[in-house]
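Entry 14. Structure prediction run on the chain below.
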Amino acid sequence: MKKFVVTLALAMLAAGAAQAADLGGKLLKIGSDTTSPPMESVDPASGQIVGFDIDVVNAICTKIHCQAEFVTTGWDGIFAALDQGNFDLVASGVSITDERKKAMDFSDPYIVNSQVILTRAEDQGMTLEQFKAQGRKLSAQANTTDAQVAEGLVGKENVAAYDTFSAAIIALKNKDVDGVVINGANAAAYEREFAGQLVAAIKGLQSDPIGLVFRRGDANAAAFNEGLQEIKKDGTLDKLIAKYWGLK
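Output returned:
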C-alpha cells in the first residue's frame, strides 16, 4: 500500500508538471518596439505587427495554450511599462545582461545575436582599427547594448544615441555619423532596404543571448521556457531562424 501511495504521489507530481505549461487560453499582452525588422516591425500593407520575435512568441503560445496581443511601445520606456503592468512580457530582441537580470526575469535564450557596424557603401572596406584610428563617429539606439558597445569602441564623446534605430540610420545617411552599431539580426534588413547605400562593413563585435522579459517572480516565465524547449525540440525554432536568415 505504501508503495502504491508513493507511486500515486509521483504520478500526481508529473501531471502537475505537465499542466504547469498550460495557460488555458489566457490572453497575454506583449510589449515590443516595432521599429527593428526583421525582429519586429509593422507591415505597412496590413498594419499588423510582424517579425521573428512575433513568430517565436506565437509558436510558444501554441505549445502552452495562450494567446498573444502585441503592443507597440517605445524602447526607452518599455521596461518601466512592463514593471507598471501595461503588458505581461516584452519580446523585442532584448539582450540578456547581468545588469538587466537584477531588475527583471528572462526566459532562456532563443537566439544569440552579434553586433555589427553599418556604414555607407563607400566605407565598406574599412577595418575596425582604421575606424578607431581615424576618429570616426558612431550612432546607436539609446539605452541598448549596441550603445554600450559603441561607447566601448570609440568613447562616449564620439557616440550619438537616438531614440530609434531609424533615427540612427538617418544620421548615417546624412553623414552626421560614420557608422551605426546595430544587432546583426537587424542589419540584413537595412542592407536590403538601402541596397547599394549601406552595408554591414564590420561584423562580430559582441555576441549577446536574446530572451523574453518578464516582471520579477512572474510564473509565466517558467511556462514560456517549457514552450521554448518544445519549439527547439520539434524544429520549429530552426525553421523560423531559416525563414528570416536562411540558416540555423
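The longest strand covers residues 111-120.
Filed with the rest of this week's runs.
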